[in-house]
């Protein structure tokens, strides 16, 4: 996922709950529990995750790898028996990584490990050499006189704490999102930040940033946490001597390319009813194979939809979207919004926070559906999922829809370890716990069983 | 550390214990416990480890970085007040890493992460492309007909288990040590192995291998575990289609260069008595900063010797050796053996198995010193160190001395997590637990306090 903070592209519709008496309980059909329990033996989500990460691997938005991923997705979704499988294309600007290296020239010569941030500017092929000027927070950089920064390589060592719900990412991700523009405005030669991550492996965390209008792009990269702390130690032990770094970053903007969303459906018995949208994103960052970000998300939601489809025909259409180009700017979510945002959805929900267990459910279904929301909470409890807020929910690609007031369900995954892997070379299949993945499928199957409006005819769920 | 298996360069002298009545207990001076407890507050080992890994960083044997490390060591040992600080040089052949990349060309195009093994042959700069032929063990490779292997890139996926005492490394490290020669004899174009390691990060484990006499060097590299398992999945999902890899490895042999051992002493009151040798190795592999392998080893043993020196003058000389060029073939240990191996040592002991807690003590001090060995075991128990074998002990650089029959003490570190980091980019300072490092210093201080033959005058240990 990229940041949850998005410019207010679309007007928000308030659906805040007003205090009301408790609704009468909704009786859940018996198949809900049966489908939930059967899903705990799911193998399809693993197969999709393994297949996409193995047969395609990394799939940076707008590249031929993402196009191969779309072809893979279409073939997979068709083979699973979904209807209306299609690609909806859109154009987008594409940035690709080049060479990247950082070397401390003096006083303690050594290499450091880093990775360019999305939309980073480039150095000449031979690199640049400059003195490092260090700040322990973005505020300290903001407050620095331009003269202190001009011509230097800015280093921001600001650290993000580990949280279960990822709530640090908005605030503590600021050095990545805003640091490059601030440094450029002050005349910096380049900026390197401590990775927005929580692990101590030599795998830097990339991620998107965008230079503000009128700001000249400068080289911008993230050091792995061990390297960021090494640079802090080098500066400390240099004891006032200048620390000089040679930085080589040669990414390129390769112009406008095509991306697209892959869409498939389980047709509802009543096509006039608003659909339920579930999905994740198909693209990944280029360093890992995008296993937890977000092959697992498309796999979980697709496996759940498949279980509903195999169990019977739902009243409402279930629409599965494997969004394109999420990581680099929510292009897929914005394209979907343009095409479908004006039409009502019964609910929108996205899985894009890894592959660890779902621990909480949040909803914003509106006052008229309080009983349904309560039934959903009850149905999820046997999976160890606790009730969360009843007036909010979020996702990444669905942000424009959520901001426009569409009803939303959020099945919150435990993110305690998410930022150990997020946007690093380490986002690979081996990091996924198959049992946790199955619990996710069970949660999503349960949600779809509750919200899809009754299945007919009911066949026994396959075990 | 490199392998504990060394060609029998030196004749072994048997000192196997013969069953005897229990010796009368040795009364330990009271300062032993005081020194042990004070060492649990040690900061010097951390300072040395941090300093060496920060101010020098990686220090591949025979390179200018290792020379800088020797200069750093001499300055540090002199500033600590040790006597007879000196460098004893020797010449050695030097191999250095070049470019390295692996790309699956078909059927599922993607990059894999690997690192060349020591003494690997080189590909042309543009690389080679060949079909991958996979073996799940070294025996399977040995048994394969040459025709199956000729012109191909051999892949050995054999996995090493995690153990507390590192006992899997000898046996399970065989694909690294012997695989390249076996593959070359069969006409392979190159060999890639699953890293000899236990972690799942995209940081390959390098390590030395040596082509047997008369065997042509071929490119040889290790995939990280996630990449090795990815390659296994690619082969499985290719479903019989050939899997083709492009491999670029451009290491070079740069000829004979100088390395050296750095030696310092705490002079004993009786210089005619055999010294106690303690130490670790100064060189490191080039991918990390050599924090646990083996900055911590030289730091722990030096900090312990410093504590004895500050507490009083020992009867026997304590000789600290920071061995050079261990990783690439025990050159420092062999040089020391040539210079000093013919002279008796009171004990030899090395710290080269990481920085986790010492959990066991092994000794081979001979039958006449059973009471002393028992006293040492008693003195170490309060640190949670259990008694181990009384007729064996090992180290890396000290292997020639041990094989020649010199008395040895082994303070065994917990190696459960050692092979997560060993020889990878991830061997960095942040992996060291300061409390465990202090426990090591306490163990080594205790050992020196027991074996060094009485301190005069006793000053209160500094806290």
From TrEMBL, chains A, B:
rRNA processing is among the record's keywords: no
Database matches in SUPFAM superfamilies: Zn-dependent exopeptidases
Family matches, as Gene3D superfamilies: 3.50.30.30, Zn peptidases (3.40.630.10)
GO molecular function: carboxypeptidase activity; metal ion binding; metallodipeptidase activity
Keywords: Carboxypeptidase, Endoplasmic reticulum, Glycoprotein, Golgi apparatus, Hydrolase, Lysosome, Metal-binding, Metalloprotease, Protease, Secreted, Signal, Zinc, Zymogen
Keyword Aminoacyl-tRNA synthetase part of the UniProt annotation: no
Stretch forming the signal peptide: 1-19
Domain annotation Peptidase M28: ranges: 261-444
Top-level taxonomic group: Bacteria
Recorded GO CC terms: extracellular region; lysosome
GO biological process, one term: proteolysis
Intracellular or extracellular location(s): Endoplasmic reticulum; Golgi apparatus; Lysosome; Secreted
Complex formation: Homodimer. The monomeric form is inactive while the homodimer is active.
Name of the protein in question: Carboxypeptidase Q
Natural source organism: Sphingomonas sinipercae
Taxonomic placement: Bacteria, Pseudomonadati, Pseudomonadota, Alphaproteobacteria, Sphingomonadales
